[in-house]
Amino acid sequence: MKKHMEKLSGNLNSGQGWSKLTMGQRICLLRRQRNWSQEELAWWSEISREQISRIERNASIPALKTLRKLESVFGVEICDRSVDSEKTEYAEKGKQFQEIARFEKELAKLDVKKEELRRIFDFALKTASESAEKSDILRHP
Questions:
Q1: pLDDT score, position 32
Q2: In a 10 Å sphere around its CB, with 0-12 CB exposed, 13-18 middle and 19+ buried, how is residue 42 labelled?
Q3: How much is the pTM?
C-alpha cells in the first residue's frame, strides 16, 4: 500500500495531476499526507471508518453531504464538477434500475394472476363438463 501511495504522490508531482486520480485515491492521498489513520479521519469528519474505507477503495460513492464534510476537513475541493455530473448520472441510472425492478415485480404479479385465472378457468371448464355429463346421465337413464 505504501508503494501505491508513493505512486499516487508521484502522479501529482509529475504533472499527471489530481484530475487523473479517482475520488477514493484523492481522499486516501489527502489522509496519508496528514499521516492520519482511517479512524482519525472518521473522527474528524464524523463519518464511519467503514464508510471511509469503502470510499477509498472506490467501492462506494459518497453522498454529496459526506463529500462536503471531507472537503471541509481537508480544506480542499476533492470533487470537480465532472465527478458531480457522473454521480448525478449514476443516481439517475439507480432510479432507472429501481423502476425496472418495480416493473418486473408487477409483471411477476400479473403472471401469478394469469396462472390463477388459468386454474380457475380450467376448474370451471372441468366442473361444467362434469355437470353436463351428469345432466345427460340424468336425462337419459
A1: 94
A2: middle
A3: 0.49
118 belongs to a structural domain: no
Name residue, grid cell 449514476: 90
State the residue range of the domain holding 57.
2-79
Q: What gap in Å lies between CA 123 and CA 99, rounded to an integer?
A: 36
Between vectors from CA 16 to CA 10 and to CA 17, what angle results, nearest 5°? 85
Domain count, the chain: 1
Q: And the C-alpha cell for 108?
A: 411477476
Within a domain: 108: no
Cell of 136: 345427460
The CATH number of residue 44's host domain is 1.10.260.40
| Count of Cβ atoms closer than 10 Å to residue 24 Cβ | 19
Q: What is the pLDDT of residue 15?
A: 46
User: What is the mean pLDDT for each group of 10 consecutive residues in the chain (141 residues)?
Assistant: 50 58 90 94 93 91 87 84 57 72 77 78 82 65 58
Residue 73 belongs to a domain = yes
Residue 119: its pLDDT value, please? 83
Residue 138 lies in a domain: no
Contact predicate 134/126, CB 8 Å: no
Residues 91 and 106 sit within 8 Å (Cβ to Cβ): no
